[in-house]
Amino acid sequence: LASAAEGATARLRASGGSFVRRIVRSAQLIRSLPAEAWIVLLIDFLNSYRSFGFRSVQYQYIVNEFGFSDVQAGSLLGVQSWLMVVFGMLGAMVVDACGVRRTAILALLVASVSRAMLTLGRSRNTLLIALVGLSPFGEAVLSTGIYTVALKKLTTPETRGLAFGLQYGIFNFSGALADLAADALRQRDVQLPSQLPFVGGQRWSGLRLHVLGTWIAVLAALLVCVLCLDDVALVPVDEGPSFSSSPPPVPPAELAALRRAATPAQRRQGHILVKLNRTTLASAAPPSTSLPSGRSPCAAARACIACVGRGARGAWASLAELLSLRAFWR
After folding, report:
1. Which of 23, 47, 180, 250 is most buried (CB neighbours < 10 A)?
2. Which pLDDT score is estimated for 264?
3. Domain membership flag for residue 328
4. What is the value of pTM for the model shown?
5. Which domain-ending residue is among 228, 245, 276?
6. Domain with 84 in it
7. Does the residue 49 lie in any domain?
8. Which distant-in-sequence residues (6+ apart) come within 8 Å of 251 by Cβ?
């Protein structure tokens, strides 16, 4: 019995020490994340509040604020859901072609207009334009995981699992805050001051106040994207495989120059942060079929169609590769 008790005590001490070591290691990995990764996580927090915030009240908002019946509201939300599926697939190709920053800014601009119409609008036509005309692009593109793509480019295989775990936790924490805000504001109607432009003197329900909060989250995400978000990626300092399955995001000559100019701190970390500006993207891209000035509009249109076709073929190849994985079907 004594030996069994000593063995149990030793195992407890070993497990406790292992737990402490895992905590210390996780803290070290968190500190090693670049500042750009925290910007992406902040945008993801705001994006989750926007998404969960409206999703939790959309049915009641349509029925109570715009006078739709239950059947009409269900039909409208069903059409919107199908459109979001279609635009979500198109949005994935837009991310590959235009990059995370430009796609996020474009989608957030559309989402800002859509959410403004939902917040300030009173007519059914305004609601239909916002939900069916604008929302599918703005909302679906932001839900295709573009920030996950950005986070993948900013992590190494060692830190990627922890970064994705942080992203998932932040995403759900923000959604929980949005649900709590919806419950807190649901029963609180307010009379707006008459000095406010456009909406002065109106009486707003708690639901409309909550939707206003989600609009503010969209505007905040747009501001952060414009001021702080860049198309950047980590590349290893030494010659060897890339940190992701895709090839290095810069041409070989430029990558070699960046590696030669790496600082001692970057060499200790083992990676370089590369900003993917337009020049870099253009030089890293395959030979372009763009036409010099002077060609006819028909030729330019054919070149544009060829570019879209290449993007569609690349997206289809990626989808076929995904469907061939056993883990996907499991």
Report:
1. 47
2. 82
3. no
4. 0.76
5. 228
6. 35-228
7. yes
8. 283, 284
| Tally of domains in the chain | 3
The first and second tokens of residue 50, run together, are: 């926007």
Mark whether 220 and 235 lie in a shared domain: no
* Residue found by looking up tokens 């989750």 in the block: 48
Q: What's at 274, amino acid-wise?
A: V
Helix, strand, coil shares of the chain as percentages rounded to 5?
75, 5, 20
CA distance 258 to 273: 10
Closest C-alpha among 278, 232, 282 to residue 258: 232
Give me the average pLDDT of each 10-residue run along the chain (330 residues): 55 61 80 87 92 91 91 91 82 77 90 93 92 85 76 84 90 93 88 84 90 94 91 75 57 75 77 65 42 56 65 67 68
Q: Residue 205 to residues 181, 215, 308: CA-CA distances in angstroms?
A: 14, 15, 45
Identify the helix (H) or strand (E) that includes residue 89.
Answer: helix 70-98
Task: Tell whether 305 is covered by a domain.
Answer: no
74 and 28 part of one domain: no
Report yes or no on 44 lying in a domain: yes
Residues 223 and 265 in one domain: no
- Phi, psi dihedrals of residue 273, rounded to the nearest 5°: -95, 115
What is d(CA 267, CA 253) in angstroms, rounded to the nearest whole number? 19
Handedness of CA 37, 42, 47, 53 (dihedral sign): positive
Short-list 88, 89, 99, CA closest to 143: 88
- Residue 277 makes CB contacts below 8 A (sequence gap 6+) with 231
Element at 190 (helix H, strand E): strand 190-191
Task: Provide the angle, in degrees to the nearest 10, between the axes of the packed helices 157-185 and 35-55.
Answer: 30
Angle at 268 between CA 262 and CA 272, to 5 degrees: 40
Q: What are 116's two structure tokens? A: 């403004």
Q: SS in 3 state form for 256-296? A: HHHHHCCCHHHHHHCEEEEECCHHHHHHHCCCCCCCCCCCC
| Number of Cα atoms under 13 Å in the Cβ half of residue 250 | 23
